[in-house]
Here is the input.
Amino acid sequence: MNAPWNAGMSGNRDPFAAYICDDTALDVLRPVVIELGWQPEKCNKGGLRNAVQSLSVSASPNILMVDLSESGDPLNDINALAEVCEPGTVVIAIGQVNDVRLYRDLLASGIHDYLLKPLSAGQLRDALNQAQAVFSAPKANDPETAKRHISTAVVGTRGGVGASMLATSLGWLFSDDHDMPTALLDLDVHFGTGALSLDLEPGRGLTDAIDNPSRIDGLFIERAMIRANDNLAILSAEAPINSPLMTDGSAFIQLEEEFRQAFEMTVIDLPRNMLINFPHLLADVNVIVLATEMTLASARDTIRILSWLKTNAAHAQPLIVANKVQAGVGEISKADFEASIERSIDFSIPFDAKSASNAAKLGQVFADANPSSKSSQVIRQLAERVIGASEEEAGDEEGKKKSLLGSFDFKSLLAKKKKDKKDKAADKAPAQ
Here is the structure.
């Protein structure tokens, strides 16, 4: 279902209306509405179904807030709302179900934002200001002119295989060698080394995003991310180890969405536990770099993760990268490793302890500190492969479109020929 909202600024319609189930939420909302210069009378009692009934006989406002708390089937009711909303309506849903799948499904249906009860004045103010900003933002709805974004996740099969080294080096190469505006997202919230590898302070950007996902927008991204060079910005954290990660994953969805708007490339340093807890992180990833090493445990976990990816991220292309490879050294040989995972290793990076030490001393990522090393040359080839794989994917999509179009044209031509033949036969038939 393609919801009609967010199609553009509407004409002579009310700027705002809300349909809220309970008095407590209304009491928080009305002062914020007054502060924004809108009529508090537009804050109506009643939830989403009341909104559907009212808007079926009246014009929808520019910004519409609906309460899902009394809805037994929110997604079905949202579809009903879409039928009565006019183009240009920005819809903010509120509810009491803290479920990241519901959040993602609501965003996919065209909802602008989803707020959890109990509501706060600050939360509402931020959400409504962001909704107003939609109308002044430049529109890029044309798929032919839309900027293509590439998203790459780097996952290590085991701790210490070099996934973070690959993530930071790839981010640097995309930004420096390929001049691509790049976002590096280090999701090891407590022990990440992304900022450390770049000789930067991690800041509080990522922890602030996790604590306040509703505040994530373009301005937040600009302020929270730390610049490593003109084209590379990193978002990371060094959270206290006595503070467990408390999130439903909605912040990560919002961050990835903002990265798609602001950058050409996203590189996600994705720990294995995050892969398990938040599988939706891979929903829009094009390429998954799976870092491994020549050990029995790493071979086992490569098999397991590849199997998981087939089920949960079949759209993404996995690339197997063996790191710290030493000729004649290792628990298992390359041939045995490839036989066990039933596929070839895509890239083998030689073990180079001296270059790794040099990068740490210089406070630079591995590929930047050691541009002429054999290991860096392989990582450069990997970066080019990632970009090439994404371009192939875009070509496949374009090919499918052309193929479908060609099929349509052929059928239309065939139908026209049949009609012309029938018309000629009718012309030749003797008059009765």
The CA atoms of residues 401 and 407 lie 10 Å apart. The longest helix spans residues 374-428. Residues 1-11, 138-146, 398-418 have pLDDT under 50 and may be disordered. Residues 16-136 form a domain with the Rossmann fold fold (CATH 3.40.50.2300).
